[in-house]
Amino acid sequence: MSFVKLLLNICLLGTFLQEIHGQGMMITPVSRSSAWRFGFPVEQNFNDDDVSCGGDTQFFQNHGKCGECGDDYAAVRPRPNENGGIYGTGVIVKKSNFTMKVKVKLTTNNLGTFKFHVCPLNQTNSLETEECFNKYPIILSDYDNLLSYMYQIPNFQTTFNIEIQLPRISCKHCVFRWTYETTRDLYGRQRIFRNCADITIV
Ligand SMILES: *[C@@H]1O[C@H](CO)[C@@H](O)[C@H](O)[C@H]1NC(C)=O
Ligand SMILES: *[C@@H]1O[C@H](CO)[C@@H](O)[C@H](O)[C@H]1NC(C)=O
Q1: Helix (H) / strand (E) containing 12
Q2: Which ligand ends up closest to the CA of 121?
Q3: What kind of architecture, by CATH, is found in domain 23-201?
């Protein structure tokens, strides 16, 4: 192979690999950005499978930080996917007891892990915080990940039904959060996708 050809192939491979990154969304409970697809009276986000901390911005400008609900960290709060933001209008999409089946759909599966958290909001306008989510990590009651806080993506399937255990709190307005951390890309970065959904826990 000539040097030029080799170089060209490397360039093509680079472009190809850059385009493979995980994408997806939480279907149950349906995320704020996707709720319109299920008839909820909310703003439509057509890029609802790509709520990913601002994409490359996360690494180039925000030192790896990500908004509480998956927005560009540099945006002013409430960010678009947060309570009070464009997509975060507080419309409750699910009422659940302490066991819940979460459904996630990936449009591109790049392996990695899922984690779930919940945060009770105590006032209509209060903002989700990392401190609050960290107080309520979600434990899995899923067969292969029993009592774990982390769901390891086992293969290249695209739809996931995961049984989880909600914390023993009841709340009229709780924020349920899905975090997808992909495996490392060529540059050693792990992309993060995050969705928040508004639920009631009884
Ligand atoms: C919780 O809700 C699910 C789904 O509605 C139901 O199947 C289950 O029996 C409920 N569990 C309890 C303890 O109420
Ligand atoms: C709401 O109240 C609960 C219980 O005191 C607390 O754990 C949680 O952090 C509060 N939520 C926020 C967003 O501060």
Answers
A1: helix 3-19
A2: 2
A3: Distorted Sandwich (2.70)
